[in-house]
Amino acid sequence: KSYFENNKKSPKKFIIFWKVKYNPMTQTILIISAGKEAIPGILRAKELGLKVVASDLDPIAPGFKYADFSIIASTFDPDMTSKKAISFQEKGNKIQGVLSVGADVPLTVSKVARELNLKAISINSAKKCIDKLLMKQVFKSNKVNIPNFYSIKTVHDIYEVLNSSDKIFVLKPVDSRGSRGVLLIDKESNFKEAFNYSINFSGRKSLILEEYIDGPQVSTESIFIEGKLFTPGFADRNYEFLKKYHPNIIENGGSSPSTLSKKIQLDIHKLVEKGADALGINQGTIKGDIVVKDDIPYIIELAPRLSGGHFCSKQIPASTGVDFIGLAIKNAMDWPIYSEEVLPTKNKPVAQR
Question: What's the Cα-to-Cα distance from 352 to each of 13, 75, 246, 315, rounded to whole Å?
Fold first, then answer.
């Protein structure tokens, strides 16, 4: 349904609403991260007429070159970023929206949003998303399809799971990102060596062991509009280097549209929706890492953020015609969005490596 039908507003009322609320030239958005992957978000926000303040701990981060203002604060430090965002506002620069682009920092986004009374997921939901073990426990208690998993605190914990199993498992830190510290292991692996390697990437010194499901993996990108989830982004993930870099897991891009059937894609969409609901998320964007076996999808992880790897910034718009970053910015600013903006206008083959 159109925005008018959903909100029962007449065009005349909508025009008044638009003039009051949608006035980008007087509005500012905070983009948390000024890294290379954040640049498309900064540029798109400016194209929409917004002023952009970017935050990053690196004073020479490349995104600062394109932003109107800068905040020097670690993207992983919610308190520091919030404090400096408040200070920025006190100087007369009101912030009307906040999001991260290519940075997995939902707690920082949520904390800033709470302090400045902006739109974002709750801090409670964000905490569930930055702890892979807690996320899986939430999914399990809500009967969301996931691989079997185990909490790992010591080498002996790995031994207890793998010693009597012929299965392959994935060992990963509960609080790391970008495949750092992630290993494929089985009962023939050197448990002590694997444990010491992975634990080095965990600030909390905690690992999770997941059963490896051998099947096609898919990246998804979804967005909530008025509480309804849309998933215009589907890409088959490329793992051609699994043997070459074993036991490390290295993804090498992806391809759109997905070769999975429309039914399985719909099942994946419903699974992401169920996972988001379990995490208490009903707004913003959500990125899915999904694996499929025997036509049944399983969630590896969900992340309430815009993806990196040029998926949301280049691949989705090139393949589907959907301006996903633009939608995410409008969503963060609480601007009205038409449902047709979320629906694909083309189905073009796009691959990146």
Answer: 44, 27, 22, 8
In angstroms and rounded to an integer, the radius of gyration of the C-alpha atoms of the chain is 21
Instruction: Sort strands 51-56 and 69-72 into parallel, antiparallel or unpaired.
Output: parallel
Residue 41 exposed, middle or buried by CB count within 10 Å (0-12, 13-18, 19+): buried
Tell me which residue of 264, 179, 281 sits closest to 228, measured CA to CA.
281
User: Could you give the residue ranges of the DSSP H alpha helices within 22-77?
Assistant: 39-47
Structure tokens at 324: 């996903």
CA gap 221, 288 in Å, rounded: 6
pLDDT over threshold 60, residue 85: yes
- Taking the C-alpha atoms of residue 15 and residue 307, their distance in angstroms, rounded to an integer, is 33
Q: Tens digits of per-residue pLDDT, 231-262?
A: 999 999 999 998 999 999 988 999 999 999 99
CA distances from 287 to 160, 229, 232 (A): 33, 12, 11
158-169 residue pLDDT tens: 999 998 889 999
Decide: residue 299, CB within 10 A, 0-12 exposed, 13-18 middle, 19+ buried.
buried
CA–CA gap between residue 81 and residue 315 (Å, rounded): 30
Chain-centre distance for alpha carbon 218 = 14
Compute the average pLDDT of residues 132-154: 97
Look at the block and give the residue holding tokens 């008025």.
226
